[in-house]
Design goal:
30% of the residues lie in helices and 19% in strands. It contains 16 helices and 21 strands. The strands form 6 sheets. A 7-stranded mixed beta sheet has the order 8-9-10-1-11-19-12. Strands 4-5-7-6 form a 4-stranded antiparallel beta sheet. It has a 4-stranded antiparallel beta sheet with strand order 14-18-13-17. α10 packs antiparallel against α12 and α15 runs antiparallel to α16.
């Protein structure tokens, strides 16, 4: 062998030795390591990390990464046990007894006990629409032992298990008692769950980046994954959420392989993404989404029902859908407050759009030109166009409109304020809900009439609609439930609890080497691996 060859081999051996000694990654090692990291572009930046104090989907999705639930719905929207091993119901339908499965641990190593469960449910029940109704029907939540607890009702209530399996905001996530004792309007002080991933707090950059690592102590169920039910198997070691508010930047990163999944690509970029050989467009939320215009009943002049009715009549869903989505393949006009693809689909109470009727109602209201503040998110592409439609529409009927731009997380914080407009308050914001959030009068936060005490932002207060919601909660006959739901919707339109803006389907863009993505009512990142 030539001396030069020997020298080259010697150099190569030295490089290998240095690589081993100093942990320098070879090309093959780097490729293997990359398969263990999933990079995900969420629809917005995460700032509020507590999924109980807000209905924001960013916080909900974060919740699914680190927390677990007692039950989860499967692809047929049927509740299945998750943290619960077994349960039974007494003959008089008043006592539900639940036993937790073995091996449940929080990320700090502490076992999950019924003390934690009850504290978590009580805190969730102060904010969530279904939770509030469940608590109202509950006489007592009782610890039997560390693994067994009971929910004892005041009277039979048919939505106990459905409530515990609620798949979307607010989700009844289970936290340690020391966190669940936090007031329901304050962010929890830590990020300790028992779910398949745990948050790497040292790498958290609010609004910019969130990092999760696989939870080595998590014991998934043995059943195949199905929506929020079944085995939640973490198949990658690390998940990185990387916020990219500019759509073109996000698309370029996906095409280059710098990220693996883009949760909500802009509709106008879908044609270009479909042409990329390494990218697939996947519908990961098959139930669809619903746009909503929500008004603040505490702020004049929106405390006047005639002003609200004027806005309702001015709205034409097609205008919003065309501006925000653009492609009719991904949207449809839908007046049903509980979703057009659900058993409670109805057009009851929905008026036909009419600018003339809107002007007439506004005149009758006595409106005196008060400024109407519309909050408009600049960094949430999935709804960014909606307030830009509302501004001109409301001006066209004679309203004085001030569209104020801000990022989504700022909007989420500001919409919780009950202050007057000149002190940071607001009149209108727009949002989107998954159909799973709105499928019945108990789940749909938009039709609550609880006012300041437990109402959704906007604080609609109406005892009539609350009685109807109670009637629905007690009813077990599906046909009678439909009749009550129609009455709820009719009343909600009459009082204008919110204005539906149509239904749409938001696809995700995914690199083809990413396998195992699960369709579900919320974004879930377990079961995913990279080839």
């Amino acid at each position: 062998m030539k001396k030069s060859t020997l020298r080259h081999l010697g150099c190569f051996a030295s490089i290998l030795a240095l690589t081993a000694a100093f942990g320098i990654t070879t090309i093959n090692d780097a490729a293997a390591q990359d398969k263990k990291v999933l990079r995900f572009i969420p629809h917005s930046g995460l700032r509020i990390t507590d999924p109980i104090i807000t209905t924001a989907f960013m916080s909900r999705n974060h919740g699914y990464m680190i927390y677990d639930t007692l039950f989860g719905v499967d692809e047929k929207m049927q509740p299945q046990p998750q943290m619960v091993e077994k349960y039974d119901v007494s003959g008089d339908k008043l006592t539900y007894t639940f036993t937790l499965r073995d091996g449940l641990k929080f990320h700090d190593g502490a076992p999950v006990t019924t003390t934690d469960v009850i504290a978590s449910l009580q805190r969730w029940g102060k904010n969530d629409a279904m939770g509030q109704k469940l608590i109202a029907y509950t006489k007592e939540m009782k610890e039997v032992d560390a693994k067994t607890f009971q929910i004892i009702l005041k009277e039979p209530y048919g939505l106990v298990i459905d409530s515990l399996a609620k798949p979307s905001s607010n989700v009844p996530f289970i936290m340690p008692k020391k966190m669940a004792d936090t007031p329901a309007n304050q962010n929890v002080p830590d990020e300790i769950g028992s779910g398949p991933y745990r948050m790497v707090k040292a790498e958290f950059q609010p609004g910019v980046k969130v990092v999760y690592e696989k939870n080595p102590d998590y014991k998934p169920r043995s059943e195949p994954p199905s929506y929020m039910a079944g085995g939640k198997v973490g198949k990658v070691d690390r998940v990185e959420w990387i916020t990219m508010s500019d759509a073109q930047t996000a698309m370029n990163a996906l095409i280059k392989g710098e990220v693996d999944i883009w949760e909500q690509p802009s509709f106008d970029l879908l044609p270009a993404l479909k042409k990329e050989k390494d990218i697939e467009i996947r519908n990961l939320q098959p139930l669809g989404m619903n746009y909503m215009l929500r008004m603040n009943w505490l702020q004049p002049p929106l405390d006047n029902v005639k002003v609200r009715q004027a806005i309702l009549h001015a709205v034409n869903q097609e205008d919003y859908l065309a501006a925000q989505v653009g492609d009719p393949d991904y949207y449809k006009v839908c007046p049903a407050m509980f979703g057009c693809a659900t058993p409670l689909n109805t057009a009851e109470g929905a008026p036909k759009p009419s600018i003339e009727t809107a002007k007439k109602l506004l005149k009758e209201s006595g409106y005196k030109g008060e400024k109407i503040v519309i909050m408009a998110p600049t960094d949430l592409g999935s709804i960014a166009q909606l307030p830009l439609v509302s501004g001109p529409v409301l001006r066209s009927i004679g309203m004085n409109v001030d569209v104020q731009s801000m990022d989504w997380q700022t909007l989420v914080g500001r919409r919780a304020k009950m202050d007057p407009v000149d002190q940071g308050g607001w009149h209108i914001f727009h949002t989107a809900w998954g159909t799973a959030d709105m499928m019945n009068p108990i789940a749909n936060a938009g039709v609550k009439g609880l006012g300041k005490e437990g109402g959704f932002f906007g604080w609609t207060e109406d005892p009539v609609i609350e009685k109807l919601r109670d009637d629905y909660a007690r009813e077990t006959d599906p046909e009678k439930q439909k009749q009550i739901a129609a009455a709820v919707q009719k009343r909600a339109y009459e009082m204008v609890l919110y204005v539906p803006l149509g239904e749409y389907f938001q696809p995700s863009a995914v690199r083809k080497n990413v396998k195992g993505t699960l369709p579900s009512p919320a974004v879930v990142l377990w079961n995913i691996e990279k080839e």
